[in-house]
Amino acid sequence: MPDHLTQHHRVISGQKRAAVLHAADAMIEQGVAFHWTTLARRAGVSVKFINDPKHGDLKEHVKQKLAAAYDQQAAHAVAASNATAAQLRVKVANHAAQLRRQDQVIKLLERKLGEHLGSEIALDLPAITGAALAFKPETERIAELEGRVVELEDQLLTRDQEIDGLRVALRQGIREGAFE
Q1: pTM to 2 decimals?
Q2: DSSP assignment, residue 127?
Q3: Residue 129 has pLDDT above 60, yes or no
């Protein structure tokens, strides 16, 4: 083959190689799914040109570019997931602190509610003195005290039900943000 034809083939081959590398860069940058036929079509060359053993270095160069791009994408994905995990840890810590504060408020309100209800009950209870019981026979005193215990247990059960209802209402109010 004459020298000028060989030179011409080298120039054309160099242009095709440059087109393949440029198309590969564009595909990587655009995030297009990579396939050798797609690369050949975008570069305006045949798949045979890319797969030709004479251009093995070209194919290897494209593979290296792809590997570098995949590594970079993986690094970005890991960084993004680490940032997301850190944000979630902060949110969990904030929610835990908020729950602790709400528990403290609930305990304080329950204590105050108990004190209030206790003071109401104390006013309703009749005074039983030891002197009043001392002059009655033992069986009568025991029966009277047992009756009083039953009466007080009934009152206590009623108060416990009221307290439970108030606790439920209090917790619901806190969840709805009425006490913030």
Answers
A1: 0.41
A2: P
A3: no
